[in-house]
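hey so u asked for the seq, here:
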Amino acid sequence: MKHLFQALADFVKSMHDEEPKPPLHIGEVMNCWVYLTVLEEAIMLELTCLNHTVDPELKENVGKSMNGAVSQSRRLKDFLQREGVPLPPVSEPKPQSDPNAVPLGAKFTDDEIANLVSVKLASAVTFCAASASQSIRNDVGKMFMEFQEEAMIYGILMKTLMRKRGWLKIPPYFMPPGAPNPAG
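ran it, structure tokens below
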């Protein structure tokens, strides 16, 4: 346990020791650029999803996830602009529409919306973890760790709703040969 606290203390101290900051390496730039692109496209997906549902709880959770992506996008854009990195081209925002006007064959179901957003969040968690671990600059690693934590929080909220509504996709349980059957 002593080693864990020392490692955390060293990490916190290193966050303030990096002056002047070295330039971003190409992997850091690429990860930031790709994640910003993913965020921007996810925002458009979530706007579309909000146009397809009338479920108040689902709308609230999708809205929270989308607002988190907007916040992360804004912070990442500011960071990249300060570093002199050109921003990626992104899709145009979707207009608000009446979910009841979307034809049934073209309309996402609430189950599909929840799973789309859940997959987006799970992918964000994984991408942010990899990006943080590949970062040389502490400020970049810290930024991706913050993004990961936020995505995990929104993911937990979505998973709770999905479990409540029966939308959670669960793989089959593994029962090794000879194990007692808990179902009786």
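The mean pLDDT is 91. Residues 56-83 form the longest helix (28 residues).
lmk if thats what u needed
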